[in-house]
Amino acid sequence: MKKSSFLFFLVFSVQFCFSQEEKIINGKVVVKDAKVSDIRVINLSNEKETITNRKGEFSILVKPDDLLVFSADYLDYMRKIVEQDDYDSGFITIQMTSKINKLDEVVVKNYSGVNAVALGILSKPAKEYTPAERRLFGATSSPVDALINYLSGRTKMLEKGVEIEKREFMLDKLDGLYPDEFYLQNLGIEKERIKGFHYFLVEDSRFPEALDAKNKMLATFLIIEIAQKYNLLNEK
Fold this sequence. Notes:
Blueprint: H1 2-17, E1 23-31, E2 40-43, E3 48-51, E4 57-62, E5 67-71, E6 78-81, H2 84-89, E7 91-96, H3 131-139, H4 143-152, H5 154-174, H6 180-186, H7 194-202, H8 206-212, H9 216-235
Parallel strand pairs: 1-7
Antiparallel strand pairs: 1-4, 2-3, 2-5, 5-6
Helix pairs in contact: 1-4, 3-5, 8-9
């Protein structure tokens, strides 16, 4: 009886912790050698978006485990998962770096053949986990954790985080895949709507599958079809 009561209390406590509502938190982007204004901040979980002011400050609606992305043409792409501590404090600081336009000539030695499989340590390459996949794995790595996180709804939330992250990686692939003229001349999509079309595009499961398979011919065929739907929606 005592064990049952303890388990109920534990599950109730965990469920309470992970049923928190969204709230607005403040943040600041810090860049060592570049301006910090007009940096795009997007919450991929709720699709809220804002930009930083001249001091690099911003405010955005979040909840724990939301995935934030930070981007600017002159900065390296940055991702940030909202931790419980970030949510509780109501403030986050993000360090970003400038893109390197030109590298000095370097000599690169190829050690690709030296790995755990070649050395006989592993029979096959180990799976590489993304940040969201590591969170999900950690939440289900033991029977007790798996049960508690399943009952609290955290597992479902982390699974959603993995899907969001996959879409975000796909958005990365889309940047520069086609020139702006392709969207304008072939798809009838103006430059300022390209980014919005990218979000619409990755929601169609067929297109990410074609890109993952490196089938650019099929991807191009699909992008034309999906663009027609996107344009029709924007005409309404």
